Amino acid sequence: DVKVTQSSRYLVKRTGEKVFLECVQDMDHENMFWYRQDPGLGLRLIYFSYDVKMKEKGDIPEGYSVSREKKERFSLILESASTNQTSMYLCASSLSGTSYNEQFFGPGTRLTVL
Amino acid sequence: GEDVEQSLFLSVREGDSSVINCTYTDSSSTYLYWYKQEPGAGLQLLTYIFSNMDMKQDQRLTVLLNKKDKHLSLRIADTQTGDSAIYFCAESRRGGGADGLTFGKGTHLIIQP
After folding, report:
1. What is the per-residue pLDDT for B92?
2. Is A103–B40 a contact, with Cβ atoms under 8 angstroms apart?
3. Most exposed of A1, A6, A100, B2 (fewest Cβ within 10 Å)?
4. Percent of chain B beyond pLDDT 90?
5. How far are the Cα atoms of A2, B4, B6, B36, B89 from residue B74, in angstroms, in the given order?
6. Dihedral of CA B62/B63/B68/B69: which sign?
7. Which of B50, B56, B63, B101 is the mutation pick for testing A, counting most A CBs within 10 A?
């Protein structure tokens, strides 16, 4: 059974803290993605990676960075958390070379920045 | 730029058909998708349609695609309480598979008994 796991379901951090959100997939997928989900705004792509050590900016990369040192792991980093980064963060992965690019999602991490 | 629009709420009676509508802007999208998000869970691919198709049927689900109007719809026949969820329409960004998806804001499907 395919699986994408995220390190925490709920996280509370303080303004200015450095925050790491971890995502691991066990499907040997090349592509990994980080989205944030906000009420009334849907999902917005933050960053994605199509290979180890490769990264591409999505639609809203400001205030975030990412790291992909191993194929199965994709980390989202908030260098200095701010209250407007309070959100649900969803990680996804997909296999390259398939026709319809199904993305498999993790359960999400709900981050609150105080 | 790319944009996907859908209404935020739809309320239907149990047993009736639900029709969720979506408009998109990127005519180069090869595939269009419907994802389902149940409460407290991540998104799950429900169905997809290739851009050269007009219709796709999968059990209770029917997807209709009007490329001329850039309009996509999802029909759920005999709606059940288990269908209560948020439904997201999505298209591939820049028409490519590895580039992530552009999602609509999601339609909350509410089932009345």
Report:
1. 80
2. no
3. A1
4. 66
5. 25, 14, 11, 11, 9
6. positive
7. B101
